[in-house]
Design brief:
The chain has 189 residues and is α/β, with parallel strands linked by helices. The chain is built from eight helices and five strands, in the order ααβαβααβααββα. Strands 2-1-3-4-5 form a five-stranded parallel sheet, with helices on both faces. Residues 46-180 form the TIR domain. One of its GO terms (molecular function) is Toll-like receptor 2 binding. Pfam families: TIR_2.
């Protein structure tokens, strides 16, 4: 069976449900979600919102993704190793993994053949095993049979169409940060 994000129970579309009159009444009765951009939100407990793990061969696509994620309205704080760290400094990558809320792994043929990418993937999995919603595998040009065994328990986003994939990644990060801020706000009350 396919475990792509489109069939994931955690990828329900809030945009379509929020426009429905029946759910808007329910939403008005529930406490509103905390603002993830608020300076006192749990979002600011880490240096980065998203750490991007990728092969250098895929840098152009990753730069487009980072530009999209760092744009308005969310203005996510992204760690991109080639931009934000000295070349091949393992401690900087480990720090970025530990100091990020979410991790996007762009799983491509180049990613699968690169030992450094495998190392990055294992760092992410060691930080938060089974962290669905925090760990966001994105498959591009990889057959299902080649998908890393270590990630098989996680839903992935298939990058068939770049624009919709970027939006799915953004929405997944937003959902995680909202839940983080929500649980943080309710635990302090």
């Amino acid at each position: 069976t396919s475990r792509s994000s489109s069939s994931s129970p955690s990828s329900s579309s809030t945009e379509s449900s929020s426009s429905s009159p029946s759910t808007s009444l329910v939403r008005s009765l529930q406490p509103s979600r905390p603002d993830i951009s608020s300076s006192d939100s749990a979002r600011w407990s880490k240096t980065y919102d998203v750490c991007i793990c990728h092969s250098e061969v895929d840098l152009e696509l990753v730069e487009e993704l980072v530009s999209y994620l760092e744009g308005e309205p969310e203005s996510f704080r992204c760690f991109l190793q080639l931009r934000d760290a000295a070349p091949a400094v393992v401690t900087e990558l480990c720090d970025a993994v530990q100091n990020s809320h979410c991790w996007v792994m762009l799983v491509t043929p180049s990613f699968l053949s690169d030992p450094w990418c495998k190392y990055q993937m294992h760092q992410v999995l060691a930080e938060a095993p089974l962290a669905n919603g925090r760990t966001i595998p994105v498959m591009k040009d990889v057959e299902r049979k080649d998908y890393p065994k270590e990630l098989r328990n996680l839903y992935y986003i298939s990058m068939a169409r770049k624009e919709s994939s970027f939006r799915q990644i953004r929405d997944t990060v937003v959902r995680y940060l909202q839940e983080l801020c929500w649980s943080s706000a309710s635990s302090t009350e």
